[in-house]
Amino acid sequence: MSTTLFYRKPFIEWGVATQAIPGQTVSGDLHLVKSFGHGALVAVVDGLGHGDEATAVAKTTVAVLEENPDQSVITLVKRCHDALLKTRGVVMTLASFNVLDSTVSWLGVGNVEGLLLRADKMAMPTSEYPMLRGGVVGYQLPPLRASVIAIGPADLMILASDGISSGFNRDLNASDPPQQIADRIMSLHFKGNDDALVLVVRFLGTRHE
Predict the structure, then answer these.
(1) How far apart are CA 70 and CA 80, in angstroms?
(2) Looking at CB atoms within 10 Å, which of 15, 54, 84, 125 has the fewest?
(3) Is the pTM of this model over 0.85?
């Protein structure tokens, strides 16, 4: 599954791969890619546990994010927390692309890994990671702090739930199409003991670039 969003011209492309834990027909790991006036919100949400209950709480989270995708990532996490009180909760990482100034603001609560790979091999550093805070959205929300970083054309973001093993960026060709990258990560790094999801987003640049 892949699509492209438009801001005068396309500015991101993305692909996603997902797999439920063996023995289950539904996954509690969901994703969101939602455009707004000057950017796009992307997220990976992992409902605690697995099965129908995990899927339900993840769907509630995605619905909250879809309502106001242009709000700050900190505000969005707080909104999700309020909506998930008295549920099993979720862990999540979300990122908001701002096309006006070519930046992305991102943060995570829990263990959904994030990675930004720079297309410019001369860039320092060559990779970036979101601030991940321990906790559970809907149960125990930590103090939140987002990081804001500049992004350039062809920079690649990968968000992966904990059903994917660490080091998933090994043997990765960052120039491949996002869907191909997501599928390869899933095939090589699916642990098999939990639901898993990989979301891959490439920033294509803005109308000024």
Answers:
(1) 14
(2) 125
(3) yes
| pLDDT, tens digit (0-9, with 9 covering 90-100), for 12-61 | 999 999 999 999 899 999 999 999 988 999 999 999 988 899 999 999 99
How far is 108 from 60, CA to CA, in rounded Å?
Answer: 17
Q: Do 18 and 187 form a contact (C-beta atoms < 8 A)?
A: no
Q: Is 174 exposed, middle or buried (0-12, 13-18, 19+ CB in 10 A)?
A: middle
Q: 110: which residues sit within 8 A by CB, 6+ positions away?
A: 46, 90, 91, 92, 93, 132, 133, 134, 135, 136, 137
Tokens of residue 15, six digits: 């692909």
Strand partners, 2: 15
